[in-house]
Amino acid sequence: MSTFSTIFAGFGGQGALSMGKILAYAAMLEGKEVSWCPSYGPEMRGGTANVNVIVSDEGIGSPVITKDADCVVALNKPSLDKFVDIVADGGALVINSDLAELADGQAKAGVKVYNVPANKMAAEAFGGSKLANLIMLGAVVYATNPIKVESIDDAFTHVFEGGKAKFIPDNKKAFEMGYEFAKNNA
Amino acid sequence: MAKVLMKGNEAVGKAAIEAGCRFFFGYPITPQSEVPEYLSSELPKVGGTFVQAESEVAAINMVYGAAAAGARVLTSSSSPGIALKQEGIGYISNASLPAVIINMMRGGPGLGTIQPGQADYNMAVKGGSNGDYHNVVLAPASVQEAVDMVMDAFDIADMYGTPVIVLADGLIGQMMEPVEFNYVPRKGIPEKTWALTGKGDGERHVVKNLVIDPDDCEQWNHEHFEAYEKILANEQAWEEYLLDDAEYAFVSYGTASRVVRTAIGYLRAEGYKIGMLRPKTLWPFPQKAFEKVDGHIKKYLDIEMSMGQMMPDVAYACNDKNKVVFHGRTGGNVPTVDEVVEFAKKIMGGDK
């Protein structure tokens, strides 16, 4: 059985839940089982937000990930501190290095760490931090390979329907930037 | 129909529409507010009626009225809101009317917390209203199953003339999973010849609750219980997961059963012969499942997001309370895979 579990975590408004949704959509369109399970509660912009996404070839058990995550995506420092310990041995830790820095020895020895300056990259390319989440998603897909890269395009057409289709080119570009960055800095 | 990725709360709303429900009366409450939100925009598009009532009590009585008029009707809420609806559910039950009630449970008692829980088991399964009655209670463990059960709930309600509760929790309401909608009505759903559609030149119909003469009232009760006997015989549903060679069986439903499923993966990898009996109907409780597997099960490990409300039913079903052990979390917490694995190992004591 092949199962891929990942936690996307950040401040509310950074797009953790949306990047998880795009990944879940892409995997679903490949015919895989998926679950997208958000933290919910009295949360607001600036508060914490995270989502657990599981992609599997067969039925998914717990949609809540409490151990052995194949990947943790930390968009800020509190998220990094909260989830660093549940990355599986051999798993990946993808960090927005503009907002979070791994302390010496904080990650387990077998964990692959990817530091992505996503905010800086987004500011240079798009003039703001809005698409930093898609840059991070590109890095995640390179680092962990849970889906075919092409499937992201299918996901975009489902997530950005109708009038939102105009957002696809920039989202696609941001995704590709992150993917290439991870490839060149692995 | 291709699969779509949908939040549980929205998916159950769509499921109701697909099953022909055209009336919703409710009141918002976390973690199920997306159900009324979705239906407020989608029901009018199919000629349906959405009313945000002034309270849960008003909403359930509007359900009572629409059901009496022969409509397929839905209400939804979460734990404290469902508590408010109990009187109306009892009235609907006494009048033998079909209605569907969705409960996306949260932690309790009282206002409790907005995080997921399963502590409304007793309220749903034992009945939170007065009198001798049962609700049919369906317990989905995924968004797809919630969709399928909501659709079937309308059919069950119409077949037997009873309210049906779909008992899920906040996590299933908030989570997105791929779903498809394939409603195929059951065969043999009776026509609603009793419905209050206006006498005109036709026959007089009466839907009532007061049966003042004790002999008549007792007779009503017996008629209800004849329907319950049929439900007990026909509607028990469960899943057997890795039980063929199992010596130990988890008993768990809904979200808790998802955690258990993952825990079983870890335990099986270490050689433990353990599986799961997952009730899909909580009333009728799947007695037949226990009769089938009991011969080779040494212990039943009941895992719930409550303080063990299902335990007496498990003990009754296996006819040996000494075989039933319990682990649970409550107040809005979901058990972790690790704690379920540890609990199981403690019970099995290295017995592989």
What do these coordinates show?
- The complex is a heterodimer of chains A (186) and B (352).
- Chain A has 186 residues and is of the alpha/beta class.
- Chain A has one domain: Pyruvate-ferredoxin Oxidoreductase, domain 3 (3-Layer(aba) Sandwich), CATH 3.40.920.
- Chain A has helices spanning 16-29, 77-83, 118-126, 132-144, 151-159, 168-184, and strands spanning 3-11, 33-38, 48-56, 69-74, 87-96, 112-116.
- Chain A has a six-stranded mixed β-sheet with strand order 2-3-1-4-5-6, sandwiched between helices.
- In chain A, strand 4 (69-74), helix 2 and strand 5 form a beta-alpha-beta unit.
- The longest helix of chain A is centred in the last third of the chain and has 17 residues, at 168-184.
- The mean pLDDT of chain A is 94.
- Chain B is of the alpha/beta class and 352 residues long.
- Chain B folds into two domains: 4-192 and 208-234, Thiamin diphosphate (ThDP)-binding fold, Pyr/PP domains (Rossmann fold), CATH 3.40.50.970; 238-348, 3-Layer(aba) Sandwich (Rossmann fold), CATH 3.40.50.
- In chain B, 40% of the residues lie in helices and 19% in strands.
- Chain B has helices at 8-18, 34-42, 56-68, 79-84, 86-94, 121-127, 143-160, 170-174, 214-234, 254-269, 287-293, 311-318, 337-348; strands spanning 4-7, 23-26, 49-52, 73-77, 99-105, 136-138, 163-169, 176-179, 238-241, 248-251, 274-279, 281-283, 299-304, 324-328.
- In chain B, the strands form three sheets. A seven-stranded mixed β-sheet of chain B has the order 3-2-4-5-7-6-12, with helices on both faces. A five-stranded mixed β-sheet of chain B has the order 9-11-10-13-14, sandwiched between helices. Chain B has a two-stranded antiparallel sheet with strand order 1-8.
- In chain B, strand 2 (23-26), helix 2 (34-42) and strand 3 (49-52) form a beta-alpha-beta unit.
- The longest helix of chain B is centred in the middle third of the chain and has 21 residues, at 214-234.
- At the A-B interface, helix 1 and strand 2 of A face helix 8, strand 8 and helix 10 of B.
